[in-house]
Sequence to fold (376 residues):
Amino acid sequence: MAQQNGILPFQVPKTNSHKIKNKWFVKQSFQHHSPRLSALPDDQKSMEKLLDEHKRSKCKSSLRSQDGYTGQTGLSKAINTFLLFTRPYASFGIIVGIISASLIPVETISDLSPNFFLGVLQAVIARMLMQTYVSGINHLYDVEIDKINKKHFPLASGDYSIETAWAITCTVTLLSFGIGFMSQSAALLCGLLMHFIIGSAYSIDLPFLRWKRNPILAALSIVFLHSLSVYIPNFINVQRYLLGRSIVITKPVLLTTVVMCIHSIAVAILKDISDTEGDKENGIKTFSTELGRKKAFFLGISVLLIEYGIAIIVGAFSASTLFSKFVSVAGHVVLALALWFRSRSVDVMNNSAAFSFYMFIWKLFYAGNVLILFYR
Fold:
């Protein structure tokens, strides 16, 4: 940092008595960086206390920006708050999964009819609404945990009231099931029902429920929500109800489901690392609270590398053309290398770094859904 007259902008001029002599200079320096410091205290101890508050404020702003909050007002703030409530990264993962599963039964270009696109769009909207329910019910039952782990979340921060959260959650649930019934597709409706039941069991605090308190049940919930309830139901929805063919569970959809189930297990392991403190305080058992952050991180990375190893083998022996084999194998090798190099620079003891890496895992999930289309 450049010096001015031998004094850094954040350096307090020193004297033999260790007191501030040039108050005007220090005051002007801090006013440039934070309007909260415009009224400079007379003693150095008070000034240092204000500095600490300023740093904590910046840290809080950084945490709020992790899920897309930017501190805006009006309409922008309302949109950002709603996005925090819905967790769009999870919804986007399901959207990508639905599109991938819907394309597997397509055999010719003529299958891509307006009815096909309308049916897929119907499935996407219905599942996005159901995922919003799952996110909403999780917010409602995790308020105390979020006050420790994610103070910027709508309920923990007070941006949404409990009544508002319940209104949104109930509305999207009714809309989702309404679209499912209108589609007249038993496969689509079964997928939505599975999503609803597992999402409820994961969060709701009732006897035999609140599966998130057990790391194994929590992992199984994530596998169902993001894999088992997505790929096969939407494959059947397109094959039987949009293309009018007999239901035949093909090898590509089975391989796709298996590979993405393994990825979902890794998501379940890695997602709670940044939430370790709040989970411990509220008696929630996760892989990171039971094994420790570093061991949980290593376990999650190992599961992902196993997934990519399986995907490479499947791509090499199952893809029908040389081009498909090359894309599938080379693509998963690239993802494995990206994972390996990215994981080496992560400080798992830092919540922000752990959460950032978790978002990176979702990007790998999106990319994997594209590569699995080459299994056919």
In short: The chain has 17 helices and no strands. Confidence is low (pLDDT under 50) at residues 1-45, 58-71. The CA atoms of residues 239 and 336 lie 32 Å apart. The first helix runs from residue 23 to 33.
